[in-house]
Amino acid sequence: MLDPFTQFALILLVVVGVSSIVRMLKQPLIIGYIISGIIVGPFFLNLMQGTQTLTLFSEMGIAFLLFLVGIHLSPKVIKEVGKVSLITGIGQIVFTSIIGYLISLFLGFPMLTSLYVAVALTFSSTIIIMKLLSDKDALEKLYGKISIGFLLVQDVVAMLILIVISSLSGGAGAGNVLVSTLFRGGLILAILIPVSYYVLPKFSDFFAKSQEFLFLFSISWGLGLSLLFLLAGFSIEVGALIAGIMLSISPYSYEISSKLKPLRDFFIITFFIVLGSQMAFGDISHLILPAIGLSMFILIGNPLIVMVLMGLLGYSKKTGFMSGLTVAQISEFSLILISLGVKIGNLSQEILSFVTIIGLITIAGSTYLIMYSERIYEKIAGLLKIFERKNVTEKEIPNNKHDYVLFGYNRIGFSILKAFSKITKNYLVVDYNPDTVKELKKEGINAIYGDVDDAEFLDDLRVDKASLLVSTVPDKEVNKLVLDYINMHNQRPVAILTGRQIDDAFELYAAGADYVILPHFLGGEYTARLIESAKSNRRTYRKERKKELRMLKQRVKKGHEHPLIQKDRA
Predict the structure, then answer these.
(1) pLDDT of residue 566 exceeding 60
(2) In this structure, is residue 461 part of a structural domain?
(3) What does the alpha-carbon distance between residue 236 and residue 226 come to, in Å, rounded to a whole number?
(4) Could you report the per-residue pLDDT of 530-551, keeping only the tens digit for each?
C-alpha cells in the first residue's frame, strides 16, 4: 500500500485532471470532484485505502462550511425566515415520504424496503446546496436563507431518525435515547446562549486586535463546539452551525468569514471526493429504470411540493421556484440511512446500490438546475403562475449593498465621512481597528471591522454594487487588489484611492482609479468637497484626474516627492 502522502498527492492530481476537463466543458466543479472520487475509489484506481486523513479532512470541510453558513444566519434572519423554513421543511418531508412510499410500492418493493427508500428520498444534501448557493452568491438572498432553513430542518429530522434506528438496532429504548440526546443538547444551548451575548463579544474584541489570533480563535471556536455537540450525541454539523450563529452577532463576523473561506474550499473538496469513492455499484441492471423513475420524482416532484407550500404561504413564484430546486437531490444522510438498514439486516446490499444510483443522478441533475436556475426560470416563468397567490406577502431581507463605502477611518476618512453623511444615509465604513469600529457604532454610524486586503471580504460586502468607493488605506498593493476586484464587474463604482508616492498615483490611475488622493499634496477636506459636488458622477472625477496628473508631472520635474513613511494599515 502506498504511503499517505503519495496517496493524497495522486488523488489531488486526479482531481485536478478531471476538474480541468469539467471546467473546459463549462460544467460545475462539484461534478468533477464526485467523478474524481469514483475514479480513485475501489472500483477503479483504488487509491482510497486507509485514507483516514481524507476522511478527517472531509469532516473538517463539513464543519467549516456549516460554520460559515451559521455566521450568515444571525438571530434576526432566523426570526424572519424561521416560520416558513419550519413549515416548508416538515411539509416537504411528509409529502415526499408519502408519495415516495406509494411509488416504491408500485415499483414492486416490499413494505419495509419502500418505507426506508421513501424516508431516504426526503433528505436533501445541505453540504452540496450550501456550496452551490455560495458559488452563486445566493446565501444572502431571500430564497437562499429560506432554503438553508428548511435544509437544516431536514438535517435535524434525519439525525433524530438515525438516533431512533441506531438505538433499536442496539436493543436500547428509542424514546429514552431520543429524550436523553435532546436534553443534553438543550442544556448545552442554555449555557452557550448567555455566553454568546455577554462573554464572547469581550473575548472577540481581544482576539481581533491580532489577525492571526482572530484566525486561530475562529477555528478553535468552530471545531470546539462541533466536538462538544458530537460528544452530546449530535453531529458535527449541528455544532459547527450553532458556533457560526453565535459569532454572527459579532462585529468581526465578516472578517472571520472571509478568513475561513479558503480553508472551507480546500477541505470541502475532500468531502466530495470521499462521497464519490463511497458510491456502491453492483449488478443492478434490473433496477436502473426504477432508479430513473424515482430520480425524476426527486428532480421534479420535490421542487413542486416546495413551490406549492411556499405559494400557500404567500411567497412569489420565483422565490418558490428557486427554493424548490434546492431539494432536488438526495443527501449523504440518505446513504447513511440505507447503509444502517443494510447493517441491521432490514435491507439488502443491492438497495444501497439502488439508492446510490439515485444519488448520482439527482446530485448531478440538481447541480445543473441550480447553476442555471435563472435561465430556466426565464423560460418557464409563465407556467409557474399557478404557484403564486394574488397577494404576495414576502419581504426581501435587506442585503449588504451600500451606495457609498469608505475603507479606513483616519484623518482623511473623517472629512470623507462628513461628505458621505450630507449625501446619503446608505453608507458603510470599514476599518482595521476594532476600537475605531466600536466608537463609530456608538455614534450611530454603520461600521464594520475588516481587512480590505482580501477579495473574499470584498465579495461579502458586495463592493461592486456600490456607487462610490473611497479607500484612505495608503498601501498601493491593497488598493490595486480593490481595483482588480471591481474591474472584474461590468458596473463598477467610482473608485477614489490613496497613495503615498507620486509613482503610486500613476500606477493606480493606470490600473483604473478614478481619482487618487496624495495626502501630502492633497488633503481630505479638498476630496470631501469634491465628493459633495460630484457625488458619483464619473465624468467630474475624470476632469479632476487630468488636472491632478498635470500637476503631479510638474512636481516630478521639480523633484518633489512624498516623504517616505513606515507602512501602516487603516
Answers:
(1) no
(2) yes
(3) 5
(4) 888 888 888 888 888 888 788 7
Among residues 316, 524, 507, the alpha carbon closest in space to that of 417 is found at 524
Note whether 19 and 91 are same-domain residues: no
304 and 248, same domain (yes or no): yes
C-alpha cell at 514: 478614478
In angstroms, the first-to-last Cα distance of the chain is 53
Global pTM reads 0.62
Please, is 538 exposed, middle or buried when counting C-beta atoms within 10 Å of its C-beta (0-12, 13-18, 19+)?
middle
Query: Are the CB atoms for 332 and 125 separated by under 8 Å?
Result: yes
Q: In 30-172, at which residue ranges do the beta strands (DSSP E only) sit?
A: none
24-32: long-range pairs with CB below 8 Å, 24+: 27/368, 28/132, 28/135, 28/367, 28/368, 28/371, 30/128, 30/131, 30/132, 30/272, 30/363, 30/367, 31/364, 31/367
pLDDT digits (tens, 9 = 90+) for 339-348: 778 777 888 8
Closest CA to 125 of 394, 362, 342, 420: 362
Q: How many helices (H) and strands (E) does the chain have?
A: 25, 6
Domain of residue 496: give its range.
Answer: 404-557
Average pLDDT, the chain: 81
